[in-house]
Amino acid sequence: MPAHNDVAAFQELLRRIASGSHTVAAAGRSPRILALCGAGLSAASGLATFRGSTAALWHTHDPMELATPEAFAADPGLVWRFYAYRRHTALAVKPNAGHYALAALSRSLPTNSFLCLTQNVDGLSPRADHPPESLRTLHGSLFDLRCVGSEREGPAHCDYSVEDDFTEPLVPALATAAEGVDETASKDSDGKPPTLPHIPLEELPQCPKCKSLLRPGVVWFGEALDQEMIKGVDQWVAAGGIDLMLVIGTSAEVYPAAGYIEEARDAGAIVATINLDAESREGLRALASGDFAFGGSAADLLPVLLEPLIGKLEEPKVEA
Ligand SMILES: [Zn+2]
């Protein structure tokens, strides 16, 4: 049995999966690879995690308390300001070699042979030209927008939504927030950060169809994941054996994402974990026989591990 971090053994497995000679892949069947990505994939781009220390407080607000439907209902202007800032932060960094390697993996395999589930809302995979047909953003995206009318029943229902809208600022009223101006720097005379100016409803992003408010297309605390998307993922998982499960930059503790690893294992998959702490004592304890664990940055490791299928990853062209 190869060592858990044997790059050559992993690459050999990948070649066998692609050629159909791996045991799980029945003769003549296309390979099937599932990936689950988390914040660690974007870490090399320089993006602080949502719960990370640098994002512990936004102005005087706890981000965890702003990412809720209740907060949006109470003060949509404040929540939109927070999301304008998060969009700005995500746009200020670039996709890394890990994002590009996964996009290249998708292009190297037949349609439906690869499904990439990401918990990241940062838009970096789409910006790395990851083919949309193999990408599922489980928690939505900072750059998706949808009408609040999508939550209404009856005649007031509106299904307007848009994906990957990278406009900045979205509306003039959000320009300061989008620029990331540190408004906390100027203190009031009592030394407290100033209260953020209220943004009137009519100045917030509006649905072009029904003039209701648009909201960020992310899954907030207390909200369910997109059931249509989950249904599609479940169907893909159930459609036959899975050869390989890539767990990238995530400790995969959040359900339902974490459940996919077990489902893939049940479907025959060898699990390969690529994460900074993949080779920690705890990480290694979770390994089954034949699994792989590569401790390191996804941006460094993925281009090397996937090279048998994607070739040498070219330096990505600089974004305009
Ligand atoms: Zn609408």
From TrEMBL:
Residues 13-312 form the Deacetylase sirtuin-type domain. It comes from the Eukaryota. Keywords: Metal-binding, NAD, Transferase, Zinc. The active site is at H139 (proton acceptor). Zn(2+) binds at C147, C158, C207, C210. PROSITE patterns: SIRTUIN. Belongs to the sirtuin family. Class I subfamily. This is Deacetylase sirtuin-type domain-containing protein. It comes from Sporothrix bragantina.
